[in-house]
């Protein structure tokens, strides 16, 4: 078996990932260790200053297990810390704990995966109490409780003994074991490359959240939703009048933060730039557009651009357009580059495979699959049996007619709108019909979910793990393409059967080629997001370099510093 290593530079951590052979042919393991570099220096200056960050509407549920909005979870990430986190590429790296992944065979000859998390030495919660293996296990038990109703999907893992815990009287889970005061092991059946993401949970202090906790009753844990406590860079003080007030955590494991206080100010989306200009906040994230960029530059503010974690696409339902030649003909009528450039300028790029380009699994050497060509489109329509008779493109006397949905709210204000209008012109010149339905978002998704569009324009949001099962597998829960391709299913399943990212990337590259050949999804654009900063108040140099969707300044709040 081959052995390879990868090194991650992360904040003041040096992490080395090793993948190699186990003690026998029946096991293999991935080990990741973390240590503080000898060259790192802990800041000794006293924290000073208060920075204000704009944030969207909050529900006030400040729990990493029960939050209901992404904005509430930003607060959580400021107060809590997790066992592991994602690096700039979306790969899992250590945070509070080192981790090891080992594939083993049990006595029955069945494949299992063992995850070992070892907490760093000397970790403390913000109240000065030590972080131990008991806190990790308590945090797992909260998410795996029979009455858990939060957003986490930890219970979808095939953890040994989980079914007996959820549906029976055992009060412990066989597959979650305390090895020592700093070490916890979790064993699952089979292999699940997404498991490490789900297991890398925030660690809650049992001494604070666990008082009154019993299996089947999470009310005592939820009672702390409005007054959180954790191991993050900042401690919760208050939430009132649309402002969350935090103060530095003197026990933070990466060193005392440079800011004394941090505030999150709820700010209307339409006012995000003005809030920075008028010095209400130091940093915000307005929607990136050429017009917004010009306003930011004319105001003398600083900005940072990062890729959005997702991409725009045009989809087709293979059940409604069953002839692949028709679908391929339509693909050749999609003139993407002019549309993307006119809408986003340099703030987006045309992409060639249906996956966000920030994913480690995106094939960087991907080339254009369907170029814009009316002649090639007509060739495919002809192969499908359509003929131009009396100015109409018909087959068996029926004119080619395609219905496409777009959520422009009646304004056609959408980056892919020019693609559709060009398609309409080209198809009608051939004798076909393309009918565009421009609806608001609610109506659009109602019709889309009912699978009543032949084609549609939308965008996918992505996650750190690039698993394609949910969208492209025949049994995927949100598949709308209806292609039912056994070869594609096999590749997606194979990618789920290994923890080796290099192998998975190759499977995904092959799978993406099949998706393109099936002509059910045309990737259109990868756009940018924007952070706007007032350099008179927030030190620009205290923001992390090379931010990505997986690694923004929220990962280094302890390093933020005031300019004056």
In summary, what is this structure?
With 564 residues, the protein is α+β, with helices and mostly antiparallel strands. The chain has 16 helices and 24 strands.
- The global form is globular
> Could you tell me the mean pLDDT?
91
Uncertain ranges: 1-43
Structural class: alpha+beta
- Strand runs, count: 24
Largest sheet: 8 strands, mixed
Outline the structure in words.
The termini are far apart. Helix 15 (486-495) packs antiparallel against helix 16. The chain has 16 helices and 24 strands. The strands form five sheets. Strands 14, 15, 16, 17, 21, 22, 23 and 24 form an eight-stranded mixed beta sheet that branches. The protein has a seven-stranded antiparallel beta sheet with strand order 1-2-3-7-8-10-9, covered by helices on one side. The longest helix has 18 residues, at 501-518. 41% of the residues are buried. It has 564 residues and is α+β, with helices and mostly antiparallel strands.
């Amino acid at each position: 078996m081959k052995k390879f290593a990868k090194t991650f530079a992360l904040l003041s951590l040096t992490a080395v990932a090793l993948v190699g052979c186990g003690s026998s042919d029946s096991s293999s393991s991935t080990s990741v260790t973390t240590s503080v570099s000898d060259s790192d220096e802990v800041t000794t200056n006293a924290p000073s200053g208060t920075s204000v960050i704009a944030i969207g509407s909050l529900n006030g549920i400040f729990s990493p297990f029960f939050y209901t909005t992404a904005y509430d979870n930003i607060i959580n990430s400021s107060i809590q810390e997790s066992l592991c986190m994602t690096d700039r590429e979306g790969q899992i790296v250590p945070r509070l704990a080192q981790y090891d992944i080992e594939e083993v065979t049990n006595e029955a000859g069945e494949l299992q995966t063992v995850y070992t998390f070892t907490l760093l030495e000397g970790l403390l919660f913000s109240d000065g109490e030590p972080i131990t293996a008991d806190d990790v296990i308590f945090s797992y038990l909260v998410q795996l409780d029979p009455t858990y109703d939060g957003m986490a999907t930890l219970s979808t893992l095939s953890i040994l003994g989980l079914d007996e815990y959820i549906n029976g009287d055992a009060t412990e889970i066989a597959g979650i074991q305390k090895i020592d005061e700093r070490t916890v092991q979790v064993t699952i059946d089979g292999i699940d490359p997404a498991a490490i993401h789900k297991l890398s949970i925030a660690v809650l202090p049992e001494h604070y959240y666990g008082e009154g906790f019993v299996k089947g009753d999470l009310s005592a844990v939820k009672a702390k939703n409005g007054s959180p406590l954790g191991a993050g860079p900042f401690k919760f003080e208050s939430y009132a009048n649309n402002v969350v007030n935090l103060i530095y955590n003197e026990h933070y494991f990466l060193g005392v933060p440079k800011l004394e206080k941090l505030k999150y100010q709820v700010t209307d989306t339409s006012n995000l730039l003005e809030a920075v200009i008028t010095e209400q906040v130091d940093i915000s994230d307005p929607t990136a557009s050429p017009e917004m960029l010009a306003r930011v530059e004319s105001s003398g503010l600083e900005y940072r651009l990062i890729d959005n974690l997702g991409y725009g696409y045009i989809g087709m339902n293979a059940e409604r357009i069953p002839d692949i030649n028709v679908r391929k003909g339509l693909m050749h009528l999609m003139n993407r580059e002019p549309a993307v450039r006119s809408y986003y300028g340099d703030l987006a790029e045309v992409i060639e495979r249906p996956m966000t380009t920030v994913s480690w699994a995106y094939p960087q050497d991907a080339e254009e699959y369907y170029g814009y060509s009316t002649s090639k489109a007509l060739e495919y329509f002809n192969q499908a049996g359509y003929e131009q008779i009396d100015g109409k493109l018909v087959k068996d006397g029926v004119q080619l007619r395609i219905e496409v949905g777009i959520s422009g709210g009646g304004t056609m204000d959408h980056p892919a709108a020019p693609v559709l209008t060009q398609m309409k012109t080209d198809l009608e010149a051939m004798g076909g019909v393309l009918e565009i339905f421009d609806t608001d978002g609610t109506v659009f998704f109602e019709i889309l979910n009912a699978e009543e569009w032949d084609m549609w324009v939308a965008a996918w949001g992505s996650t750190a793990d690039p698993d394609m099962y949910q969208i492209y597998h025949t049994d995927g829960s949100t598949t709308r393409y209806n292609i039912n391709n056994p070869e594609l299913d096999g590749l997606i399943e194979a990618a789920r059967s290994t923890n080796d990212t290099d192998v998975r990337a190759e499977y995904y590259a092959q799978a993406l080629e099949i998706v393109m050949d099936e002509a059910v999804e045309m990737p259109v654009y990868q756009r940018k997001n924007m952070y706007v900063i007032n350099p008179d108040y927030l030190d620009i140099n205290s923001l992390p370099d090379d931010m990505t969707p997986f690694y923004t300044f929220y990962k280094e709040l302890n390093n933020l510093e005031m300019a004056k």
